[in-house]
Structures are given as structure tokens and as C-alpha cells.
Design brief:
With about 170 residues, the protein is α/β, with parallel strands linked by helices. Helices cover about 50% and strands about 20% of the residues. It starts with a strand and ends with a helix.
Length: about 170
């Protein structure tokens, strides 16, 4: 199974593609889409859509995992973040991918084993789980990889539960 994780943000939107092959988890690609506050919001959203569409077209993931909104400082920030998340979901749907949403607590629990882990703990575990030589350059990309890993762990657990129930 191949999963694209997306960590939506109004300044940087991280993405990370993880493959769960016979050799274990592997990072295929990751990065961050930089968004300028000087650009109109419509242009920023178009950039997110175009770049995520490019990743989706090139790598053809089976699913997309997106970090859910958990807290916003103010309403205006929450609306902007919601717009970015909507565009990310649209890109996934246009490319035929199912979308799974996970809370930050769920993602951290799946990757670190502790729902209130800090960003450096997540970065460390993502680096170890994916057997990377060095941590991803962007914390946003790292969070996206963590979302993908969370989905892979969740999908594996659900498959085992379905198999057990079918017996």
C-alpha cells in the first residue's frame, strides 16, 4: 500500500509519500509547499492544488491521510486552514484517492506511542521507522510522513480485525 500524507498549513503544506512493501516502510518522496502571505489566497490555494496534483499523478498513491484541525488561534486562521485542507481533499478526490483524517493525537500515538509528543520526537521516530539517513529537512514534511505512517498502521490493524472476524 502507498499512502500520501498531507500536513496542511497556511504558510507551508507538507507532503510525504510512504510505501509499505515487503521490505517494510519506505519514504518515496517528501517536501513542503511554501506559500507566500503576499499572494492572494486564491493563488496560494491554486499552488497547493497544482503541486499536490503533480505528486498524486506521478506517484499514484492508494490513499491520502490528512491531519485534522485540532485548534485554531482565531476564526480567520481556522477558515484559511480549512480552505487549504479542502483543496488537499479535492486534489485527492480528483485523482481517485480515498481520504482519511487523523487527529494530531492519533498520529503521534501511532508513530511515537505518546499522543503529546513534541515535533522533535515525531521527527526522530519518523526517521527511524523509515530508516532515513537524516531527518526530513522540513518539519511539515515530517508531520506529513507521520500521517502516512499512521494510516498504514491503522489500515493494517483494520485488515487484521476483518480477517479475525471472518473466521
Amino acid at each position: 500500500m502507498r499512502v500520501l500524507g498531507i500536513d496542511c498549513g497556511t504558510e507551508f503544506t507538507g507532503y510525504g509519500l510512504v510505501d509499505d512493501g515487503s521490505g517494510g516502510l519506505a519514504c518515496i518522496t517528501c517536501g513542503a509547499i511554501a506559500l507566500s502571505r503576499r499572494e492572494p489566497m486564491a493563488q496560494r490555494l491554486a499552488r497547493v492544488f497544482a503541486q499536490l496534483s503533480s505528486v498524486l499523478e506521478h506517484h499514484r498513491p492508494d490513499a491520502v491521510a490528512i491531519e485534522d484541525v485540532f485548534y485554531a488561534v482565531n476564526v480567520k486562521s481556522a477558515i484559511k486552514l480549512g480552505q487549504v485542507r479542502g483543496v488537499a481533499m479535492l486534489a485527492a478526490a480528483v485523482h481517485g484517492c480515498t481520504v482519511a483524517e487523523y487527529s494530531p493525537l492519533t498520529i503521534k500515538s501511532a508513530v511515537v506511542g505518546y499522543g503529546k509528543a513534541d515535533k522533535l520526537q515525531v521527527q526522530h521516530m519518523v526517521t527511524r521507522l523509515l530508516q532515513l539517513d537524516s531527518p526530513p529537512a522540513s518539519l511539515d514534511a515530517c508531520d506529513a510522513l507521520a500521517a502516512a505512517i499512521c494510516h498504514l498502521h491503522t489500515a493494517c490493524t483494520e485488515a487484521r480485525m476483518r480477517a479475525a472476524a471472518a473466521r
